[in-house]
What does this fold into?
Amino acid sequence: MFKHTWLLGAACFVIISLTACGTTKNTPNPENAGPSTAASLAPSSDSKYVKAEELFKKTNCISCHGVDLSGRVGPKTNLQKIGAAYTPEQIANQIRGGGGGMPGYEHKLTADEIQLLTDWLSSKK
It folds into this structure.
């Protein structure tokens, strides 16, 4: 009995996690958005980083990673210093293929968009 209860709970957690990260809704929930400013995501006013931030919001990455990149679904979703922990190639591979609860975006984003996000996230050190 307890084995089935645990299994049901784990399955619900996985489904909720995947649903939260895989949504394509373009408007974030303002109640959960936190301090939302362009400066909180972009290290400068560089138009490349502004475009990356817009893409990050448009694809609803903030649903799991948060508006300030601090993560909302556990410590592995914190991207504030991702550029210090991973190479650009590793970051691009994660965006393309997903894994660990994150959906892959290889068929949802262009190669240029993936590169834009990779460059921006690589600057987070």
User: Anything to note?
Assistant: Confidence is low (pLDDT under 50) at residues 23-39. The domain at 2-122 is CATH 1.10.760.10 (Cytochrome Bc1 Complex; Chain D, domain 2). Residues 2-22 form the longest helix (21 residues). The helical segments are 2-22, 38-41, 47-58, 62-65, 82-85, 88-97, 111-122.
